[in-house]
Amino acid sequence: MLMYHGIRFVRLLAPHVPRTVGYRICVLLGLVLWRFNAPSRRKVEDNLRYILGPDASPLRLQRAVRDTFINLSKDYYELVLLGSIGREEILDSVIASGLDIVDRELAAGKGVIVVFFHTSGFNLAMQQVLTREWQSSVVTEPLAPPAMRRLVDGLRSALGMRLITADRAGVRAVLRTLRANDVVGLAGDRGTSGTGVWVRLFGHPAFMPAGAAALSLRSGACIVPMRTCRLADNRVLLQVEPPIERWRTGEFDADVRSITQALATRFESYIRERPEEWVVARRVWKEPPAVSEATQVPQSGPASVAAVL
Length: 309
Hints:
15% strand
């Protein structure tokens, strides 16, 4: 409950603190977390070793770990800000390009899956994309305890974003949304159900959520990746990328793996440029299970939309 009370406390203070000051406080908080949160620090270090490679010096690695915690603090701050800033301020905070790609793909009449990754500034960027004139929803994790879920969902939906919980009923809701030619936001780098597919990420096996691929094949909707990064003045640069190619060989499992691998390859190109902006404090690279287990792909149910915001 420490996180819950921390978010509530910051939520009370945020409207009364200039954002420039708020971001400076985030830097200090990030340094404290980097120094004293050893379990999370080890997980971030583990991930960054894969990204930076064996030739990265210990100094380079620790700088990247430190900056990851600073960016993570800023992203939590921006989540809290969603409850106190207006749409115009969001528009001023995000420099967006490629939104016309979504318009163009919607013209096909089968909906669009916007896949985002947990890179710095994604909370503000998602609001920019999913509170436009499109009918939009985003898939979210059923957080625990319920009070935490209500708090976070309230912040995310403050500007009109529609939320769909990643459970069995949520799968049906997502498919209905896509078949109505609407937009669904879905995480591409973190899943919570324990199901997905093994892909190659930075030359090593990583377990990635397969919900976007499975939903695309079931609905006919295209997958449009979204990348974000933070500028020096803390504005967010948002770029909507061209759609991911869809494989339709008739073998559902194989097609899901191919599409998810294509997403992972695109994602790799993003975080290679700015490793410290991937704000994930959990281990991503693990040893794969036996081949029979590694090739399992969700067909329906919660696994198809398992994503964490």
